[in-house]
UniProtKB/TrEMBL annotation, chains A, B:
InterPro entries: aa-tRNA-synt_IIb (IPR002314), aa-tRNA-synth_II (IPR006195), aa-tRNA-synth_II/BPL/LPL (IPR045864), Anticodon-bd (IPR004154), Anticodon-bd_dom_sf (IPR036621), Pro-tRNA-ligase_IIa (IPR002316), Pro-tRNA-synth_IIa_bac-type (IPR004500), Pro-tRNA-Synthase_IIa_type1 (IPR023717). It comes from Limnohabitans lacus. It is an enzyme of class 6 (ligase). NCBIfam families: PRK09194.1, proS_fam_II. This is Proline--tRNA ligase. It comes from the Bacteria. PROSITE patterns: AA_TRNA_LIGASE_II. It catalyses: tRNA(Pro) + L-proline + ATP = L-prolyl-tRNA(Pro) + AMP + diphosphate. Belongs to the class-II aminoacyl-tRNA synthetase family. ProS type 1 subfamily. Its EC number is 6.1.1.15. Transmembrane segments: none annotated. Catalyzes the attachment of proline to tRNA(Pro) in a two-step reaction: proline is first activated by ATP to form Pro-AMP and then transferred to the acceptor end of tRNA(Pro). As ProRS can inadvertently accommodate and process non-cognate amino acids such as alanine and cysteine, to avoid such errors it has two additional distinct editing activities against alanine. One activity is designated as 'pretransfer' editing and involves the tRNA(Pro)-independent hydrolysis of activated Ala-AMP. Keywords: Aminoacyl-tRNA synthetase, ATP-binding, Cytoplasm, Ligase, Nucleotide-binding, Protein biosynthesis. Homodimer.
Length: 581, 581
């Protein structure tokens, strides 16, 4: 490609609404152009990256035995009504009506349509397993689209769906996909982690997120540096402390803490470690009748160490919480504690509540909590002596760095990541809702066992940039760079020698299969270099009259601090050596 | 690809709603699966064809200097309001509202968005010409979607848009695209014709349709077998007859023609050629005031030879018709002719009308038309004697086979075609509406000159099938076949020799870059052959124990009447020879 035949359109300034570096740099590098909130044109430079992502995904999906098809963007509502998602999903599901007033949705995923296809196509266990995928435009009407391609409304996703005869086979299909995902992310040249994720109501542990590591990532990733353990924050288990509960040494003492309604404030006031305080979170669960009206509510008191945070996913799995929970209302709190929030605790309750102690709280002695009286806390609290042993002890907190790894191999560390892929065992959730069966070996109909597997094709480049950039711009891994190499001739219009060498190097790289662009725009060197550093092409060859007199050109990798002189005889081999490095 | 790893899903019966052969065969061959009216899943077998079409289009577009980008499927209404198309377009433009109640459309084309991009990107004439294209999902909410992929609602289109500094440059860009389209359609291996098309209000003659020739085509194509002239029916000119008008020889005679209200019936009754009759078409034009109310109507009488048909596009271009026309109402007809339709004519009018005679009618003598009296016609009608010379003589009819070619090179012939591509000079229609300007060499802003260029990517396979099929199924051209070759082993599970030779041939073809599938499903030969003949894979190699004993396998091209024996030593070369044939 010659630059004069392409669209190179860089900007000095990032758009005002760009909050994250990938959004800023993709816009400045002319890769995306905003059309509306969360809706972007993929400009020629950006589309090249997306196409490379797609090609790698497609190749590895095919290699893993998945079969490509394409499901419509506009999908009739009927199938979505079969699974109930047409009504259950929030406004992020874009619902539309056609000219005849019939309901349609724009696909955010395609479980319904692929299940409909397979229930028609697959009749016998002999046709299983099957895995269908598509690389297709999706739409989610996010309330607050932002971060460019990171959280857009229209985006491209690779979604795959496996269909198996039983759970064992479904797990094998899942593992094949997880393996393919590892190959895909390896090929992208990104630092990533596959982390165990919560599998929701389906249970089991067959759910993994593929997280591109980046300090700016939205997700907290938990891992163990001395083992292979990795999970997302929702999933990572906080083990029960190995040390037993200490003996009570302090008397229960009511202490004035005027205006100190947080554990931090109380610990500071009393000059004790935050870890000696206990925070009280008051939740409630409702029992509904068939009309969906609340017939009974139960108030819960969750106790967490002052320096720990509640994990909503773990709380949602407590026995009795399966139907969902909410924070208690002020009147429920007054009613049970006789006090307003900020000074609550499990001692001296006005009415009984369901107490759940986090594992760490359950082994504490001589702790501090609210006195259920405004502007007072109590110190020297001890289980069994000052209050009954907790009704339930459970892991209800987020892990913190330094916690023991659940696999017993060391301590946990935490880093930030951007989710770009997800493999998920679905079980029979969709096949049951849509009566998608096949005839088993015994001739009886059985529900299809399913898995689903997504990769955010347009999100991936944004994640790659969050991980790989500097103050000058993007630094693409070779595999997904818009161009792998750029030839920058200086004074091409003035010097025949420069022009000839530039063409020679350009054609030589092309012939070697390198995706190279020749910058024949005639820009000044400073502007030209700034463009390519912003765009992030990893390999640059600069050709000037001065060097040519000595028989050399300059090579610089985008990560190199400075360029190195390479003889014209060696430059092609030099680039190729750096490519395969 | 091995068949066991793919989805081969053929049907004995075509769906009840399939009216055309391509719809029937694509469904039966498992290439598409209906999801809703005009909305199809592209099944794995069909998607392979679509991807090959896309690849050829992409390659030739790139070669022609067009730059690929992608514009969103969901587009904000604002740009469509700028050009007025948001309001002007009918319900085929699918309008939607997002969660905030903002208006959007699903793109049927992208003139607005690409013009918006270019008006931001292009500042100077130095950046021109530019041509941007995308291969992207489109939606047109057809009132009556049918014919499978031929007239679907959701479809894939390649749309390109050229931007130039002046008309001369725009015409050059247009010619580059027209040339690229020829290369593309040549590569598809289809019989097609590029035909001049009407360019509507823009004028000029820079509009060509690319029509795949097929007896089942919706469009009539006019061409001259002895020259390069080709046009669609709307556009093809009917030249003025070269012979002068004959002298009047008959007296004007009123003739009873009870119940004979068509030219055909009258000609049969009077036993004269249909070409001696003249049919009267009564149209009307309205003058509107600023409120859009009709303030005045004009009645027109169009006269055509009884064996000719009116051409609406030509009529729409008559002076006075620019604002559109309609058929006259019954009361307008009674009012001007004093008679009901079926017996109308230009002689003895009750009120004056604007008479337009087709060129052929203007040279007729002794002709027959309605008497403006029910159940009567008049014969021996002659211009100048029985009625004034026509106010206007014009080409207002469709050409018929045997008409003189407008280029003077012979006679016209007519065949049927399916429009799969269109190149169109747009001028400044969109750039003016959207104020898309660039600075010319004189430093003054000028409107961009545009062209647009479409290829129906998902329609093309359907057109290819309409042109290439037989009673057994599809016959794909090599370039767009889902698989180029299929290896069919007979009794692979019983015979090691068959299995080994099948693998050898399969791997040999793969290594030679042939897109081959090995049918390892273990189907019986009859069912296996029927599948591949239905699917339409052009090259088949059948391997059986019996032949292998003689050192031969069977080769059959999908168009061959029977298979031929080829030695195992020669089979790879034989297939490749047939491929390049």
């Amino acid at each position: 490609m010659k630059a004069s035949q392409f669209l190179i359109s860089t900007l000095k300034e990032a758009p005002a609404d760009a909050e994250v570096v990938s959004h800023k740099l993709m816009t400045r590098a002319g890769m995306i152009k905003k059309l509306g909130a969360g809706i972007y044109n993929y400009m020629p430079m950006g589309l090249r990256v997306i196409r490379k992502v797609e090609a790698i995904v497609r190749e590895e999906m095919n290699r893993a035995g998945a079969i490509e098809m394409t499901m419509p963007v506009v999908q009739p509502a009927e199938l979505w009504q079969e699974t109930g998602r047409f009504d259950k999903m929030g406004p992020e599901l874009l619902r539309i009506k056609d000219r005849h007033g019939r309901d349609f949705v724009i696909q955010p995923t395609s479980e319904e349509v692929v299940t409909d296809v397979v229930r028609q196509e697959v009749r016998s266990y002999k046709q299983l397993p099957k895995n269908f995928y598509q690389i297709q435009t999706k739409f989610r009407d996010e309330r607050r689209p932002r971060f460019g391609l990171m959280r857009g409304r229209e985006f491209i996703m690779k979604d795959a769906y496996s269909f198996d005869r039983d759970m064992a086979s479904a797990k094998a299909s899942y593992q094949v996909m997880a393996g393919a995902y590892r190959k895909i992310f390896d090929r992208f040249g990104l630092t990533y982690r596959a982390v165990a994720a919560d599998s929701g109501a389906i249970g089991g542990d067959l759910s993994e997120e593929f997280q591109v590591i980046a300090a700016t990532g939205e997700d907290a990733i938990v891992y163990c540096p001395s083992s292979s353990y990795a999970a997302n924050m929702e999933k990572a288990e906080a083990l029960a402390p190995s040390q037993p509960r200490g003996a009570a040494t302090q008397a229960l003492t009511k202490t004035p803490t005027p205006g100190k309604s947080t554990c931090e404030d109380v610990a500071a006031l009393l000059n004790v470690p935050l870890s000696t305080t206990v925070k009280s979170l008051v939740l409630a669960t409702d029992t509904l009748n068939e009309q969906g009206e609340i017939v009974k509510s139960q108030v819960w008191l969750l106790l967490l160490r002052g320096d720990h945070d509640m994990n909503e996913v773990k709380v949602g799995k407590l026995p009795g919480m399966e139907g969902g929970f909410r924070f208690a209302t002020l009147s429920e709190i007054e009613d049970h504690f006789g006090c307003k929030p900020g000074y609550l605790g499990p001692v001296n309750l006005k009415k009984p509540v369901h107490v759940v102690a986090d594992r760490d709280v359950s082994v504490m002695a001589d702790w501090i909590c609210g006195a259920n009286e405004e502007d007072f806390h109590i110190t020297g609290v001890n289980w069994g002596r000052d209050l009954p042993e907790p009704a339930l002890v459970a892991d209800i907190r987020n892990v913190v760095a330094g916690d023991k790894s659940p696999d017993g191999q060391g301590e946990l560390a935490i880093e930030r990541g951007i989710e770009v892929g997800h493999v998920f065992y679905l079980g029979t959730k969709y096949s049951k809702a849509m009566n998608a069966t096949f005839l088993g070996e015994d001739g009886k109909p059985q529900f299809l066992e399913m898995g689903c597997y997504g990769i955010g094709v347009t999100r991936l480049p944004a994640a790659a940039i969050e991980q790989n950039h500097d103050e000058r711009g993007i630094i693409w891994p070779d595999a997904i760079a818009p161009f792998t190499a750029v030839v920058c001739p200086i004074g091409m219009d003035r010097s025949e020698a420069v022009k000839a060498e530039a063409e020679r190097v350009y054609n030589g790289l092309l012939a070697a299969g390198v995706d190279v662009i020749l910058d024949d725009r005639g820009e000044r060197p400073g502007a030209m270099f700034a463009d390519w550093e912003l765009i992030g092409v990893p390999h640059r060859i600069t050709i000037g009259d001065k060097g040519l007199k000595d028989g050399v050109v300059e090579y610089q990798h985008r990560r190199d601090a400075q360029s190195s002189k390479v003889s014209t005889a060696d430059i092609l081999a030099h680039v190729q050596a750096r490519l395969s490095a």
